[in-house]
Amino acid sequence: MENKKREAFVDDLSHDGRGVLRLDGKVYFVPGALPGEKIEFEPFRKRRGQFVGRLLSVLSASPHRVQPACEYFGTCGGCTLQHLAPNQQLAYKEKTLLGNLSRIGRVEPENLLPALSGENWHYRRKARPGVKYVPKKGGVLVGFRELGNSYLTSLRQCKTLEQRLSDLLDPLHQVIAQTSGFQQVPQLEFAAGDNAIAVVLRHLQPLNSKDLDLLTKFAQHHQVQLFLQSGGLDTINPLWPEDPIPLNYLLPDFDLSIEFSPSDFIQVNGTINQSLIQQAIDFLDLKAPDSVLDLFCGLGNFTLPVARSGVPVTGVEGEHRLVKKGRANAAKNNLDNVKFIEMNLAGESILELGSSNYNKLLLDPPRSGADEVLKHLVPKIRPQKIVYVSCNPATLARDAETLVHGYGYRFTHAGAIDMFPHTAHIESMGVFESGDV
Ligand SMILES: C[S@@+](CC[C@H](N)C(=O)[O-])C[C@H]1O[C@@H](n2cnc3c(N)ncnc32)[C@H](O)[C@@H]1O
Predict the structure, then answer these.
(1) Within 10 A of 275 (CB to CB), how many other CB atoms are there?
(2) Which atom of ligand 1 is nearest to the CA of 322?
(3) What is the pLDDT of residues 208-267, one digit of tens each?
(4) Closest by alpha carbon to 28, among 3, 4, 45?
(5) Which stretches of 349-400 are assigned E, i.e. beta strand?
(6) Is 67 exposed, middle or buried (0-12, 13-18, 19+ CB in 10 A)?
(7) 366 burial level (CB within 10 Å; 0-12, 13-18, 19+)
(8) Tens digits of per-residue pLDDT, 257-311?
(9) Phi, psi at residue 77, to the nearest 5°?
(10) How far is the CA of 216 from the centre of ligand 1 (A)?
């Protein structure tokens, strides 16, 4: 592609937070550019059928442009929206959500919920930084992937990670570089509970006793639970302490303490998670003789608060270890009106769930959405109310179309949830009511 400077006005933001502009019949995606801006850019490559441009300068800035707070902005692929004022990030997320609903699903919610938002910085309690040995860049790198490629940005701190986790980045660079196996460590997993923090260090070759000693001292000094992982998830074992206390997070509004292991799925943003649960419970409007089905329930993040509200609830989840955690968490919190079922919700077996009378349904599927559940289970149980928590507006839109145009549900509410400030990830909630109510 010919590289030369061009000037143009930016029309829009793409779903991943890049500026979108049209010039000479082509659509260009320019990271760092904002709608309404006049920019100078360099068209520099065509990637997967898209023309990508490099921002050279902003000739007339958007009133919503702010100074990015992080020194790695523009290089690290972790955050792509730091240059946009936080209230405008939320406006962009709402617009993208509604745009997906209308374009993909041909649906419009009757009410737009105020976006759920919280702290903009140091909110991430889970992360999976990569590790790589790159002699040209000074040795061991620890960080997230760069924007638009698979190289690692070497981070000494991260303003989205919980402070306790961010503080470990620099010392981890140093300790990993001192081990004999430093070229064989591809990844770390960070998890922050309310009671303790943990790091899982993945290693491709056995570590020697000197390495283990170094890592143990690191863990003791930083008071972090350190786990080693030599293979799959079942090879995760504690190095220090030998018998760590289980990590937990508290849900004080429901008098719950939820235990988890460092590699378990938990919602990334603890504060937003509490608001999200409260909003879901409010919409479920629980009262006797309700019976709730919570699909894709993980370790019971919504299931247990529903149970605490006093109505019977069944949580369904595909991961065996999460189902076990859900049951253990129910017992620890003295809840006996909850049942967990292990099941693949993309398979035929979901029809088994149709033999019980659930009148309210909560769904929190992965990015691929809940196609099978909607196709096979919803027509069978026809719940009065469906609260759908989504991490992908495109699949929420597709599923909303099925509910509204396929089964005649009312789409009463939708709203964005700012689970991941400064990133283009959009979490959202949709609420549906059966016309039969
Ligand atoms: C977005 S997470 C939500 C977990 C939980 N609701 C929470 O708030 O912590 C999605 C969950 O769906 C589970 N899952 C993904 N695909 C599945 C499938 N085909 N069948 C059953 N569960 C599945 C994952 O293991 C994960 O726990």
Answers:
(1) 17
(2) 27
(3) 999 999 999 999 999 999 999 999 999 999 999 999 999 999 999 999 999 999 999 999
(4) 45
(5) 360-363, 385-390
(6) exposed
(7) middle
(8) 999 999 999 999 999 999 999 999 999 999 999 999 999 999 999 999 999 999 9
(9) -85, 0
(10) 33
**Whole-number pLDDT of residue 1:** 56
Among residues 394, 338, 388, the alpha carbon closest in space to that of 365 is found at 388
Question: Of 246, 278, 301, which closes a domain?
Answer: 246
Assess whether 151 and 239 both reside in one domain: yes
Statement to judge: residues 416 and 284 lie in one domain:
yes
Tokens 């080693």 locate to 228
Tokens read off for 37 = 């801006």
pLDDT tens per residue across span 33-68? 999 999 999 998 777 778 999 999 999 999 999 999
Dist CA 74 CA 421 (whole Å): 16
In this prediction the pTM is 0.95
Q: What is the pLDDT of residue 182?
A: 85
Q: Whose CA is nearest to atom 17 of ligand 1?
A: 318
CATH of the domain at 215: 2.40.50.1070
Q: Go through 186-212 and write b for each residue having 16 or more CB atoms within 10 A of its CB, e for each that does not.
A: ebbbbbbbeebbbbbbbbeeebeeebb
Number of domains composing the chain: 3
Q: Which residues are catalytic?
A: 391
Residues having CB closer than 6 A to ligand 1 are: 265-267, 296-298, 301-302, 317-319, 322, 344-346, 364, 366, 391
In degrees rounded to 5, what are phi and psi of residue 388? -115, 115
Helices (H), 57-208: 86-103, 163-178
- The three-class DSSP label of residue 364 is coil
